[in-house]
Specification:
124 residues; mainly alpha; Ribonuclease iii, N-terminal Endonuclease Domain, Chain A; 6 helices; 0% strand
């Protein structure tokens, strides 16, 4: 399978799940109280606005490979089928790019790289 031939929206669709599971697992391991508390903490990482900020921070750290930057840029240029809710198109595209990155890495089975990027995001 050539990952570069997979639609960026599909990569983001998969990556959204991968990223969210990683965040939820992290929060559970940190023993954040009940489900309501977990949901509030998760928003700090999974909302489109915060994902855009996270992506910008990671880009400024220059941690991405050329292949990862290619996927990020491809996803930022992806045209969604519907208008984003509760955010601007610019922020939505950055969030989509972060999710697509995780989708690409997951399909490549590059779990070590996923873990490394999650550590950069979570500060661990």
């Amino acid at each position: 399978m050539n990952i570069n031939e997979i639609n960026a929206g599909i990569l983001a669709y998969l990556g959204d799940s991968v990223y969210e599971v990683k965040i939820r697992n992290y929060l559970i391991e940190k023993k954040y109280g009940n489900v309501n508390v977990l949901d509030k903490e998760a928003i700090k990482y999974v909302s489109a606005n915060n994902q855009a900020i996270i992506l910008d921070n990671l880009i400024s750290k220059k941690i991405f490979t050329d292949e990862e930057l290619y996927t990020i840029n491809r996803a930022r240029n992806y045209k969604p089928n519907s208008k984003p809710k509760n955010t601007s198109i610019k922020i939505y595209k950055k969030a989509t790019a972060l999710e697509a990155l995780f989708g690409m890495l997951y399909l490549k089975k590059d779990y070590e790289r996923i873990s490394y990027i999650m550590k950069e995001i979570l500060g661990d």
